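WARN retry 2 of 3 for item q-0093 after timeout on previous attempt; input resubmitted unchanged.
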Amino acid sequence: MISCATVGRMIALERGVDSELAAIACSVHDYGRIITGKKRIEIILREMKR
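OK item q-0093 returned
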């Protein structure tokens, strides 16, 4: 499984921008999703539709 930070780093390298900063931004995004529980809610809603 690939992390959001790794994807952000790869995209940054392709675009010629600071890859470390991009990885940090993606990590903060992931952290926010964990804290707010938005990911968990989406999974629950998806399971309810089955």
